[in-house]
Amino acid sequence: MHDETSLWRESGLRLSGFGHYYPRLLVENESGDDPAGNAVDEAVIGRLDVRSRHVADEEETPAYMGVRAARAAMEQAGIGADEVDLLVFSNWTDRQFVPEWGPHTAHLLGADRALAFDVCGACTGFVHGVQTAAALFGAHARWRHALVVSSERFSRRVRPGSKGELIVGDAAGAAVLSRGAEPGAGLWDSLLISDGSGRETVTVYPPNGWIKSSRELVSIAADSHADLATRMLARSGTKMDEIDWVVPHPGTGQLHTAVRERLDIPEERFVTNYETRANTGSASVPIVLSEMSREGRLKPGDLCYTPTVGSGWYYGGLLFRV
């Protein structure tokens, strides 16, 4: 936390493949489906700018979706399941006591020799997973490839009939972290910050397990984004206008606008799929990277920054060159 230099610049680690999976059911938000909501909805969500979202069925568990995203990432990276040394699985929407999702996902993939476990960190889970995997590479010199899988069923964590139901979706995203980055490329930095004083900003409590946000969410999140950017850019000696793609966790449209204005990020370099996939929790960053990669938008040499915020309170991001 107090190290003001990039963590992984000389590590030789790179994100070598991305994958995603969307549930079969695509729900369209009709133009008239924009309830006024309550005062918190107005402060946090604002106008409804999600056109469609995916909802998982009973078969599409976090492991089911995660396996399919992972296979796509492995195919792009050119590796088989028997080459995976580590699998880190992020999920907050289906947390259970035991067993964790990670070992089950690794088994379904056929990656039975991999160490597999879960992390949370709410919507910062993908950053948490990549940082954890990168750290473990330092302790295991023979490891070559890690899978970071983020799989969420956010549709189950909102009150039915609420405005929040219209802006969240289900999905899984995955990335392969490998040794062998070319000089100047690969993972440059990761940073994950926790602040327990903000624990009530977003909560999900029994018995219903529905998400509840405070009216101050957007301002708190924007402050966190600003602090994260200041720290990470300083650590790497990078300026915001040198970054090709800013791929944030998409909280709400209100938050996107606040972050872009606060950090002066041109809209064409600020990439989410929020309008068509909604807020998919920790899966949101890897699914966008996967889509961009498959569309040819994410090119070798591109510098990417992935800021996220999540309940805890957490905020963090990755900086890497493709």
Q: What can you see in these coordinates?
A:
This protein has 322 residues and is of the alpha/beta class. 28% of the residues lie in helices and 25% in strands. It has eight helices and 13 strands. The protein has helices at 39-44, 62-77, 101-109, 125-137, 217-236, 253-263, 274-277, 284-295, and strands at 13-21, 25-28, 52-55, 86-90, 115-119, 145-153, 170-179, 186-194, 202-204, 211-213, 245-246, 303-310, 314-321. The strands form four sheets. It has a five-stranded mixed beta sheet, sandwiched between helices. The protein has a four-stranded mixed beta sheet with strand order 8-13-12-11, sandwiched between helices. The protein has a two-stranded antiparallel ribbon with strand order 2-3. A hairpin with a 3-residue loop joins strand 12 and strand 13 (314-321). The longest helix has 20 residues, at 217-236. The radius of gyration is 18 Å and the shape is globular. The two termini are 25 Å apart. The model has no long low-confidence stretch (mean pLDDT 94).
